[in-house]
Inverse folding.
């Protein structure tokens, strides 16, 4: 199974978008802090700082796992592995699930756990994943 260039381009785009999405929380620590302050007005500045640091660690780990998934998928597709379609599909399902969780899950204060901008940023790489998976599954299998 040789992948057409557009599939690999979508996979590489997803990798780049994942790196950018993982960087968004670091660029938007003020959004995280403001979001936490609004949801937990009794928190001290130290507690807010600790919560922001925890979110940054968690989101970094998720981003790192996303990068590893994209790289594994790219290597599998380039090598023409029969299971590449399944890996890409599973990666998309997991990524979309994690992205939707970050966007929609409510915390104990009643609001979403993440600010909407950070939540939406986590879903952006899924757009490239949808394209890559659709193109992988619409191509005839040659192996």
């Amino acid at each position: 199974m040789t992948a057409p260039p557009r599939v690999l381009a979508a996979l590489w785009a997803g990798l780049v978008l994942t790196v950018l999405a993982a960087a968004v929380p670091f660029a938007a620590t003020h959004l995280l802090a403001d979001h936490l302050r609004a949801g937990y007005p009794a928190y001290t500045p130290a507690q807010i700082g600790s919560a922001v640091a925890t979110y940054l660690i968690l989101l970094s780990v998720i981003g790192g796992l996303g990068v590893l998934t994209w790289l594994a998928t790219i290597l599998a597709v380039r090598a023409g592995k029969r299971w590449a379609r399944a890996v890409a599909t599973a990666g998309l399902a997991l990524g979309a699930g994690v992205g939707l969780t970050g966007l929609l899950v409510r915390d104990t204060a009643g609001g979403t756990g993440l600010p909407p901008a950070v939540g939406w940023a986590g879903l952006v790489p899924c757009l490239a994943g949808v394209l890559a998976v659709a193109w992988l599954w619409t191509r005839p299998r040659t192996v």
